[in-house]
Amino acid sequence: MYLKTLLLSSTIFLTASSLLLAEDNSGKLETGKTILHAIHSDEIRNIMQRLDSLVYEREYTELELQKLNKKQIKLLTKEALALSQTAANLPNIDSLNNLSDEDQLTFNAMATELKGIAIELKKESDANHETETLYIKLQSTCNTCHQLFRDR
Amino acid sequence: MRSRRAHIASYLISLLLLISLPLKAEHDSSLDLSIGGRVKIDAIYNANSVGGTRTSKSDLAFSPTGIPDTSRNSFDANLRESRVWATLRLPVGKNSLSTYVEFDFFDTKKDASGRSHVANEPRLRHLYSSFRNFTIGKTYTTFANLSSYPEINDANGPVGNLLVRQELIRYNTSFDWGEIFFSLEKSESTFSLSTGSSFQVNDDQIPDIIGKIKFSESWGNISIAGIIREINTDGKIAIGSNDKQWGAAFSVAGRLYIASQDNLRFALSLGNVLGRYASFNAFNDAAIANTGKIDLTEIIGSHLAYQHWWTTTLRSSLAIGAAYANQDTSIVPNTSNKLFASSHMNLLWSPNRKLTLGLEWLHAYRELENGNNGKIDRLHFSVIYKF
Description:
Helix content of chain A: over 70%
Order of helices and strands of chain B: HEEEEEEEEEEEEEEEEEEEEE
CATH superfamily of chain B: Porin
Radius of gyration of chain A: 19 Å
Number of helices of chain B: 1
Oligomer: heterodimer
Structural class of chain A: mainly alpha
Helix content of chain B: under 10%
Strand order of the largest sheet of chain B: 1-3-4-5-6-7-8-11-12-13-14-17-18-19-20-21
């Protein structure tokens, strides 16, 4: 009886979890460019928070933590590259973003910078080099761009 | 027969080592050595103490078999879960050979007097090397999924989890969707005798065989692991009887991110050779009759933990777990363990990345085959400083 209850509760839990995930993914497919940008941005924020929280892991060895760090950096660069691609197209596509020529140049420059940092970050992470400086630079680029353009 | 098996095993290990060697080894003198660790101070109040000599660790780190039937309050403080580690990277061609060693201070065998100056013996937790896809040495079993382990103050964790460190040789390969693992690990058959005592053969012949597949993405990870073991009496229990049986067990475990950093961590394991892998030796691998015949113990264990982040520095975890063994009471006495359950609840605060302070409450339950039961309640305050 006890075994059955445990099995049943675990099955319910696993099914519910997968449904939650499925709902999350379906949202991404039905969005426009602006929302897509926001989704990439949220995803990057989530990955960054998980990267930061790796320091609180208690059972992983240092070598395993480095491996996990590398994995999160890989996810981060994937999202950052996707975001830079979306961001580069935003001023042309979305009528809500009627930027001046000068602002558009700045916006595109920042998207290009984000792409450059993401590529460099992945390269340094793959080579087991220190990535903190680039990580901070990526954070800074995101924050600067949001401060300049998000609330327009 | 045994020498032939040993010969085959040594041949296989040599073959794996040869495969793992780089095709073109170019040794570089530039070594990368890192040293670090953590200081962990625990202050523990046990509402229902295990009692006994101070060599018992049950008052310090939760051990389900230490759940008492009688009560006696106690307070203890220690630094045994402090750790020191070192990593060494040696470039070999385009790859690197990584070696890791880690100690804690949880060896209490010389602690009977309770005096602080003899109470903190170093204990080896990990010592392994990794090269390309191979890992050789002592570390956590491949059967476990470490990311399913909740962030709690207690050194052992909820009932139902798998936290065994042992000698192994492991191969793993990564894909975009996750990883695949295969390992041969140290074997050790443990038996429940008809007298109620526990017995280890120490002459096992075939390593434990483990395979695992792990799916990882930004949503978290889920792993499915299987283990095959030979449980062997080696004629040590009943003269002339050398019974052995093969058994298997499976585990599904993982961590799922629900919203931002909030996450669910879980593990469900079941099988007839879970024995020493599950819940800190709560059960043995098998029971053995006076005739020497083996009766494998069917075990099911599970834990579920939810972690909520109140702010970027303040978080709580609620972890519950249970483990149950189906044993034949015509072989083992009715004073054998039948069911364990535990719950941990905490509030942890990290004012900076190096420091964490936390308060935790633990409640655990133990039931024997004859229906007798006991519980413990524990308040656990910890400070961790990483360096």
